[in-house]
Amino acid sequence: MIPDRVSDILRSNGLKALEFEPGSTPTSELAAERIGVAVGQIAKSMLFKGKNGNFYLAVCPGDLRVCSKKMKGETGTKVRMARGEETEAVTGFRPGGVCPFGVEGVEMLLDIGLAGYPLVYPAAGNDASGVPLTFEQLKQITGGRVVDVMER
User: Fold this and answer.
1) How far apart are CA 115 and CA 7, in angstroms?
2) pLDDT, tens digit, for every residue of 33-65?
3) Which CATH number covers residue 120?
4) Residue 113: inside a domain, yes or no?
5) Average pLDDT, stretch 64-90?
6) Structural domain count of the chain
7) 3-state SS of the chain: helix, strand, coil percent to 5?
8) Radius of gyration of the chain (CA)
């Protein structure tokens, strides 16, 4: 089930989520296989907590790893991956289904690697969904800052 706040954002932007059986797309690899796209097209949304106490949501290609040094350069602080309970408390979504839409009070970082794909697929608030959209649409809807934070 897609959360109402996500459904409202999708509807207002003319988008529709792909929905699958529960628990079927919790990883980038499984999501890509289920949707039938490259793993890099899966826009994984990962929450990080900075030493400064701030949270950052990095939306990144599913086939790459985040570079700690680049994250520090972009955020100005050392960061660590948020724990599951922190992720749910801050974003309202459980790990494996974090959606970049409707998240308040968190700086949104969009990795430039997603721009190389015609469509990317972030989760729609659960681990059995994906939203096909362009990088430009992702940028416009989230208001995210374009960065380079992946190991390449």
Assistant:
1) 24
2) 999 999 999 999 999 999 999 999 999 999 999
3) 3.90.960.10
4) yes
5) 97
6) 1
7) 30, 25, 45
8) 14
User: Are residues 114 and 37 in contact, defined by beta-carbon separation less than 8 angstroms?
Assistant: no
Cα 10–Cα 94–Cα 148 angle in degrees, nearest 5: 70
pTM: 0.95
Using pLDDT thresholds of 50, 70 and 90, give the confidence band for residue 23. Answer: confident
- Position 152 in a domain: no
C-alpha span between 84 and 73 (Å, rounded): 24
Express each pLDDT in 110-132 by its tens digit: 999 999 999 999 999 999 999 99
22: pLDDT strictly greater than 90 = no
Query: 57: Cβ–Cβ under 8 A, 6 or more apart, which residues?
Result: 45, 46, 47, 48, 91, 98, 100, 103, 106, 107, 108, 109
In a domain, 91, yes or no: yes
Q: Is pLDDT above 90 for 138?
A: yes
Structure tokens at 86: 């922190």
In a domain, 69, yes or no: yes
Residue 93 domain boundaries = 4-147
